[in-house]
Amino acid sequence: MLAKMISSSTASRRISKIIVSSGERTFLFGQTRSISMATPYKIQVPVTNTGLWKFRQQDDTANKVSELLQEDLKKHHVFFNQDGFHNHIPHHVLALYGTGAGPDAIQMAYNENKNYQRPAKESHESVADELHSWEYTKKYRGREKHYSDFLLFYQREIERLGWEAALNEHLFKGDERANDMFQRMFAGFLHPIIQLMYGVEWEQPAIVAEGLAQAAVHKNQLKTFFDEAERRAGETAETPMPQIAALIEEIRGDRKLATAAEMGDANKVFDGVMKRAPEEMLRIASKVKVLPEELDERTAEMFHTAFYVAGGAALRPGKEAKWDFFLIHHTNAAPIFLSFNSKSWISAEIKVRMLEHKIRMDLVQYAARGCPEPRLDQIRSYRPRDRDQGKELVSKPSGDNPPPGCARWPTGTDTNWATDLLPRFHSIPDDGHTIKVARALGICHELSSKYGDKPWIKIKGDYDWLKLVYMLLDGTEHSGTRWVRSAGFEEAWKDIPARD
């Protein structure tokens, strides 16, 4: 069952519950600070904090998560190969935990992914000492072999300052060092900020340190773009800015930009968009300017539009449903902006700036994937595979009485996919991308429902969201090829199975 977001106050909170797998779901949006013995060197996930989607969990599951994440911290490198492919274990384990999975499912996921990880490298205290000087870091930044040194440095900084103050110092301060790290957070298909997201959402100092260290060893290839887009926006952007979906359509309508990336490009962002249409991309990206009073709604719009784009691109006539591997990183990273907005120790200026960078990167990635058409009509008419197999589909609850475990029907919801379908997602043997999309879908549905019929709402009803869930399930369950890569290109679909 998927619930509408419930507003809360410090005086009282209304809670509805539902049992899902081994977890008990509570429909309560917004973070409360959890009591934890976590340190920069020790991961300790409390049973009281299951992330933004607020499932109730069991002590044995929390203990299993802590055990596995501690093992990953000690034993595994951030990249599992020399090509810079990322270790997703922390995301995978916490996304499962945050969607009600039990200890067996979490252990299975860990076992599926631990064997191909590279071993962690020893850190060098002398290098970690040098990293206090920004000038000295030049020879270490962007070099994966120094990940362990950056990790030790940020662990020490968090130990000295606390993780919140360390983020303000090293990411949000606004000086040369912090600005560089700010931009690197969006490198590597957003993996540094995704890593940071799980640290912030679960208040785990060690995972925050991992996110900072991961950013430090990515190259800052986006610097010129981000700097120029921000400069132009400050000088010329009109406010309120256009809807994000309108900017997406503007990209589709600019022939030079829409065709800048080519299927044969090794890196469609830098070899395509930034090489062949940099001015056209900057012209649209510099229209992004969020006013402080718009922050919460523009955050919701960013999240919603990311699903409008990624979900709409997952359907191509005559083919099975497949979500775009690159676009899903933009849905999966979105929850951190809800966490940021809830933190009083982050300034409003920084929250706005971080959101603007995310929106600009969403636009770039859309252009890089060949500008796939968002097919809302096909989402609404989508026929889930379960129906072809004669299975009963998740449907609208009926009757006056809520199901067992629910104090009342959650306002505004008419699907119970979390009950019926999440256990199937939990059993999919992958590297965590699928459950991260499912978790983000649930959070975004709740968030979007708060905004009713706002003009930027494209996915308009509970059944539209349910169709997205089925599209994700059909594309990943019992499937050898789970994703399409660059959905706007016809060539990307050639090996995707046909479907009437």
UniProtKB/TrEMBL annotation:
<dbReference type="GO" id="GO:0016491">
    <property type="term" value="F:oxidoreductase activity"/>
</dbReference>
<dbReference type="InterPro" id="IPR025337">
    <property type="entry name" value="Questin_oxidase-like"/>
</dbReference>
<keyword id="KW-0560">Oxidoreductase</keyword>
<feature type="compositionally biased region" description="Basic and acidic residues">
    <location>
        <begin position="377"/>
        <end position="394"/>
    </location>
</feature>
<dbReference type="Pfam" id="PF14027">
    <property type="entry name" value="Questin_oxidase"/>
</dbReference>
<protein>
    <submittedName>
        <fullName>Oxidoreductase AflY</fullName>
    </submittedName>
</protein>
<feature type="region of interest" description="Disordered">
    <location>
        <begin position="377"/>
        <end position="410"/>
    </location>
</feature>
